[in-house]
Specification:
The complex is a heterodimer of chains A (431) and B (162).
Chain A lengths: L1 H15 L4 H17 L3 H11 L8 H14 L2 H13 L6 H16 L2 H7 L1 H10 L4 H12 L9 H10 L3 H28 L11 H26 L5 H19 L4 H34 L2 H12 L3 H18 L2 H18 L4 H14 L8 H10 L3 H24 L1 H11 L6
Chain B lengths: L1 H32 L7 H22 L8 H10 L1 H32 L13 H35 L1
Classes of the chains: A mainly alpha (431), B mainly alpha (162).
């Protein structure tokens, strides 16, 4: 146990000192393994880290990223923004509402919060700045709405959770839809409150012709999540195959729109290759840390402690939410997911909590960590795009963070909200 | 030679692996639909993915895209100045080299141990080849880090002389 505590201490020190996250996790885990097993640290590190990415299901992640990147470069982002503007631009909050709606629509293409923040962020913040919106408010809405990305299918964190917990990714994708929409609606209400307080300029009403024109232009890209979820649900393809089909579909659309040249594809492939390496090196290193945590018997102790002290499913889920929000402050979400899920799973199974509900709650709790310092990646990315300081960004995002936490608590307390679609789809009773 | 390897071959390899994976999985869907499934497609894809992850990690090293938390670093560089921060950056690179070395030595051991072990559906393909592929990617990562470390050391030395 002492070795583990030292390893976790080292992990946070290394991360604070700007050692890359994957290397910080890997080095701390190697130290713990060396303390336990001596020279065997060499073969164990290699075997466990390679095994950590030895999964067919995980291959879905780079292809969802690839599909999103092709969509983004192929002019789809612009079409989605136009559609969002036509649909909700006239509501109180104008471009703030458009920002949230565009994130909800874009979420059906990328499945990653960071892709959303980077892909749409620059365009949204620039458009809002031109219309006279406060830069801090634009940045806060952009950052908060990007967290919808991993909730609406397809979703990279759901693929990873599904592989870790042995849960149907099709069910997870269906389960994420209602929470994603709920998050969007809650953020739109928050924007409307800002508009009532006089922070947002009023936008002009859009004609019916523009709404239909924008819908026609964006419709092919909106079909992508339907193809993914429909294909998996009908049993026609596995999640990994669905990701490849999504990529092929994105490629065909981009070809039809003629906005990507062959040389652009090379750049896209290299960028996705790099992103895959950066993301899954974290997964591999966390697998090693998880291995040594498992070996130490912490999982059994945690399960026994929770069994003795927690009496209801809700109580356990609340503790999980609190734990994930705290861990999310200091750890990259995917690393936290790979580390925490195997530790918490035995206790969750003992209390017979639905693993799909648990997955959605854990993923959202950890994704909120992307908006909180000191490791809130989206906070930094969006602050840089909006050219504001981190302190300004933290202050501006606080109300939106509160909104997301309220949604998280609703999802935690009412499993039916999360499970309604998978249960309907698989013909199970709703309650 | 090293620069060519660093800037083009690794990126080309990662991009090619993505294309190969895409083609293999798409072929699997199509062939299964017409009643002729690939029995080895899944294992082949997993091997390709493992290589993609670590080759991609090398590309991320080239492009300095590995995720890090720079809050303290940025704050300190304002106070200490670029000259002193070279020591800090050198220490970060050294730690990365330690990680890559431990991993690399482990990969050599695992390659030797599994060199003759065959995979299930992929006839003739040895487990050792998976580790060998990862080892090549990790050597490239280590090369990139070592080059940056040498650059930092030279910078420190020239700073000390002046």
């Amino acid at each position: 146990m002492t070795t583990l505590l030292i390893a976790f201490g080292l992990l946070f020190v290394l991360m604070c000192f700007r050692v890359p996250v994957a290397i910080s996790i890997g080095l701390s885990a190697m130290l713990a393994v060396a303390a336990e097993l001596g020279w065997k640290v060499f073969p164990v590190s290699a075997q466990v880290m390679v095994d950590g990415v030895n999964s067919f299901v995980l291959i879905a992640a780079p292809f969802f990223m690839l599909a999103g990147e092709i969509m983004n470069r192929g002019g789809l982002t612009r079409r989605i923004f136009r559609l969002a503007n036509a649909l909700v631009g006239r509501l109180p909050g104008g471009l703030g509402q458009v920002n949230v709606m565009a994130s909800m629509l874009f979420a059906g293409m990328t499945g990653s919060a960071i892709s959303d923040a980077v892909g749409l962020g620059a365009m949204e913040i620039e458009a809002m700045r031109e219309r006279g919106y406060d830069r801090k408010l634009s940045a806060a809405i952009t950052a908060a709405s990007s967290v919808i990305g991993p909730m609406i299918p397809p979703s990279v964190p759901m693929v990873i959770y599904g592989a870790l917990a042995g849960v149907s990714i099709g069910s997870l994708f269906l389960a994420g839809l209602v929470p994603g929409i709920l998050m969007g609606v809650a953020l739109m209400i928050t924007v409307a409150i800002y508009a009532k307080l006089g922070y947002c300029p009023r936008e002009e009403k859009v004609g019916r012709a523009e709404i239909f024109g924008a819908l026609r232009a964006a419709l092919p890209s909106l079909a992508l999540p339907l193809i993914v979820v429909g294909g998996i649900y009908s049993g026609f393809f596995t999640p990994t195959e669905a990701a490849v089909v999504a990529t092929a579909y994105a490629g065909v659309l981009a070809m039809l729109y003629r906005e990507i040249s062959p040389s652009d594809y090379v750049g896209i492939l290299i960028r996705v290759g790099s992103a895959t390496g950066a993301l899954f090196l974290i997964v591999a290193a966390t697998a090693l840390l998880g291995w040594i945590v498992t070996r130490s018997g912490v999982m059994i102790e945690v399960a026994l402690w929770l069994g003795a002290n927690v009496s209801s499913q809700f109580e356990l889920l609340l503790m999980v939410v609190a734990l994930c929000l705290v861990v999310g402050l200091f750890m990259e979400p995917i690393a936290a997911l790979v580390l925490l899920v195997p530790i918490l799973l035995p206790a969750v199974k003992i209390l017979q909590i639905d693993l799909v509900h648990f997955g959605i709650v854990v993923i959202l709790s950890l994704m909120i960590g992307l908006l909180t310092p000191p490791v809130g990646l989206i906070l930094f990315v969006v602050a840089r795009i909006a050219e504001i300081s981190i302190q300004q960004m933290i202050k501006a995002i606080a109300p939106f963070l509160l909104t997301l936490i309220v949604v998280l608590l609703i999802l935690t307390a009412f499993p039916a909200v999360v499970l309604v679609l998978p249960r309907l789809a698989y013909g199970l009773p709703l309650w | 030679m090293w620069n060519t390897l660093k800037s083009h071959v690794t990126s080309a390899l990662a991009a090619s692996l993505l294309v190969i994976l895409f083609a293999a999985i798409l072929a699997q869907i199509i062939l299964r639909a017409v009643g002729h499934p690939f029995i080895w497609a899944e294992e082949f894809s997993v091997v390709g993915f493992i290589w993609l992850v670590f080759t991609g990690a090398a590309v991320a090293y080239q492009r300095t895209e590995h995720l890090d938390v720079d809050l303290l670093h940025v704050a300190m560089s304002k106070r200490l100045g670029a000259g002193r921060m070279v020591f800090w950056d050198g220490a970060i690179l050294l730690l990365q080299l330690v990680f890559l070395s431990v991993f690399g030595i482990g990969l050599v051991i695992m390659t030797r141990q599994t060199w003759s072990a065959s995979m299930g559906a992929l006839e003739g393909f040895k487990y050792g080849w998976i580790y060998l592929g990862v080892l090549v990617a990790i050597i490239i990562c280590a090369g990139i880090v070592a080059k940056r470390l040498l650059h930092a050391i030279r910078h420190m030395a020239s700073g000390a002389r002046s």
